[in-house]
Amino acid sequence: MVKEDCLNLDVVKQLQDAKDMLSVNWTGEYTVPSRAQYPHMWLWDSCFHAMLNARFAPDRAKTEMRSLLQAQWEDGRIPHITFNTEETGKYRPNHEDYATGKNSSGITQPPVVAGALLYIYAQDGDLNFIRECYPAAARYHRWLKETRDADDAGLLAILHPWESGTDNSPIFNESRDRFLATKPKVEAPPRADKKAVNEAERPSDDDYIFYWGLVEIFKSCGWDAKQMAEKSPMRIADPLFNSIWAQANEDLAALAALLGEKDDAALFAKWNAQTQEALREKLWCEKEGFFFALDLTTNKKIRIRTSSGFLPLYAGVPDAAMRERLLAHLRSRREFWTPFGLPGAAMDEDCFDPCRYWQGPVWINVNWLVQQGLLRAGEYGLAHKLALASEKLVERAGFREYYHPWIGEGLGAPNFSWSALAAEPLIAPDEVFRTPTQVFPLADIAKGSEAAAVYTHPETKEIKPEDLRTVSAGENLLRGALSELDDALAERDYYKSKKKAAPLFRLLAAEVEIVLGKARPGWLDHLRSCDLSALLLHDALKKAGVEKISLRAAPLHYFVTATDEDGAEWALDASGDQFAFHPLSRVAVLFEQAALFLAEESHDGIRRARALSRTLLAAERILRRYDFIHCDAADIEALTAVLKRLQSRLGKTENEKRYGAWLTGTACTRFGIALDGKKAAERAA
Fold first, then answer.
1. How far apart are CA 79 and CA 297, in angstroms?
2. Per-residue model confidence as pLDDT tens digits over 270-298
3. By mean pLDDT, which of 327-336, 339-348, 430-439 is the weakest?
4. First-residue to last-residue Cα distance in the chain
5. At how many degrees (to 10) do helices 583-599 and 605-625 cross?
6. Model confidence over 94-137: pLDDT tens digits?
7. CB under 8 Å to 59, separation ≥6 — which residues?
8. Taking a C-beta distance cutoff of 8 angstroms, is the pair 169, 207 a contact?
9. Whole-angstrom distance, CA of residue 140 vs CA of residue 77
10. DSSP code per residue over 175-196
């Protein structure tokens, strides 16, 4: 077991290392997974690379996706490998071995394409790029649906272990053994993978006979997709592949809506709902409380617990009861919970091997995908721990292909690109720090707390809801969201249940989040103000029957207060992480969190440095991303006070001094703030 006090996580260095590695692995057209072993372009790898590059180098991210989509076949499939012919001799099998007549393989991989496109769009709002790429993504989805779900049952079949992305996962053992029992005459290409990596860490020779035997069958079909599906001796509904498929349809529906393709949006939303239902009905095991793969040849569940069973969280599939049972497996130190994240197979399974590829090691992309699912489920603490586990791996062993689950040793290829996903929460830690909207009793706010800094601000004033309605650029969207909220609240009567205001607020906040989730993606970010969130909460409380409501504003902040039936006054933070859209408000809150944390002497140095670095990195991201055109004198004054508190508490370590001074200096330059008391000549552009 690794002790916390022996770690020294320098997240600033880790972030820079991630940037450097991705730059080294960039070819000018795409990012190779690892120059030591994987010199070509892989489908889901490139999607993860594009997401990372969207933060570091947006143009590079777009080039990566264009390169991937240019490899699309005429029938719509996107191959799992596109080969660099100059590297043919370094990797087998190569394009000549596949004999597809193209510079690619003929099978596919988990369809992360739509998710990558939506992720890139969220960074810069380039709708022209989405318009350019959307037709290829839509063709790919139609190809998958037509060829892998011919009976329209909602679950896609994978025909080859390589299509799963989890090549030698134990869920394929039974199919492999059935195939080998026929004593096939298969001569697999020479294996180059064992030259660069220890043989004990790679799939077995029997696995490779199975892999290449399937390819030979597909070659005999002339790579015709429907014949491949009919003749393949392996047809498995994998929870990882199908969860990504479900989420991909949700993402593609969002892209279609952005482009005004209403019929497409409805179709992809329907496919999403169908697959979600199929995952619950066909892959969920009520007895064991887990999602298992389904062998479509025998119509039997493959009852081996693997990390793929947690991927339905990523697509929002489990209901509340399912989720609790599933998370019990995730938290179990006997099954899946290790100091470094999720092993490929449960540690108490007979097939578990801590060093062999997908049979036991930890993969950072799986940690990241499950982390996204935990955030979606509101399990913010678990998500944070999983993100930290990945960071610890990189700190100990660098960006490796996979890792030993107990000791954190790096395994497989070095400088592995998608392992930079460990740094993704450092780039956007606001997603990891996201917490449910908080409710504060105004009478009990402790002096000096985060809440007090907001609610006791001398310039706090009450405002009228109608004043906000007239200035919002998203008024029509707000009206649509409120209409849906009316329908939701009509079925429930929160206030008459005699519950106190605090749980009432929390229930309403959850309801509001559901409604906002149905709106067109990205529109709230583009409003860049938190007035709509406050107004929405105000109206939600009114619809719920709360009578004494007021809407208040302080510099950088909006909040709603209400009085419960006992006369106690409560405040709901309308500028919290889920509802804050004024970027300067986000910066101020993050700086305030850093200052408050530094004032707490009880925390050890490692926790202190980690929390400080992650919080300040979130502020850095906002400072770099947004234009601050709506800041008035009161805004600047409030931010100045926060920066002074932060600056006075920096200095316990050299890293704190260096990074904190640089970031506070950046904020001062950006807004023309002078912390030494001198008046700034002008605000920065």
1. 24
2. 999 999 999 999 999 999 999 999 999 99
3. 430-439
4. 50
5. 170
6. 898 999 999 999 999 999 999 999 888 877 778 899 999 999 99
7. none
8. no
9. 5
10. HHHHHHHT-----PPPP-HHHH
Cβ atoms within 10 Å, residue 529: 21
How many helices (H) and strands (E) the chain has is answered by: 28, 14
Q: What gap in Å lies between CA 559 and CA 37, rounded to an integer?
A: 54
User: Could you give the count of Cα atoms lying within 13 Å of 646 in the half-sphere of its Cβ?
Assistant: 31
Indicate if the pLDDT at residue 76 is higher than 60.
Answer: yes
Q: Which amino acid is at 63?
A: T
Measured between alpha carbons, how far is 184 from 204 in angstroms, rounded to an integer? 17
- Per residue, the 3-state secondary structure of 504-571, as one string, reads HHHHHHHHHHHHHHHCCCCHHHHHCCCHHHHHHHHHHHHHCCCCCEEEEEECCEEEEEEECCCCCEEE
pLDDT of residue 482: 57
Q: Summarize pLDDT for 490-529 with one digit per residue, the tens.
A: 544 443 443 444 555 555 555 555 555 544 344 333 333 4
Closest-CA residue to 359 (of 421, 410, 402)? 402
- What percent of the chain lies above the pLDDT cut of 90? 46
Residues classed as catalytic: 167, 401
> Any alpha helices (H) in 79-188, and if so which ranges?
95-98, 113-124, 127-148, 161-164, 173-181
- Tell me the torsion sign for CA atoms 44, 316, 250, 295: positive
Looking at residue 522, its pLDDT comes to 40
The CB density around residue 352, as the number of other CB atoms within 10 Å, is 20
Any idea how long the chain is?
685
Contact 213, 99 (CB under 8 A): no
17 CB neighbour count, 10 Å cutoff: 18
pLDDT of 532 reads 59
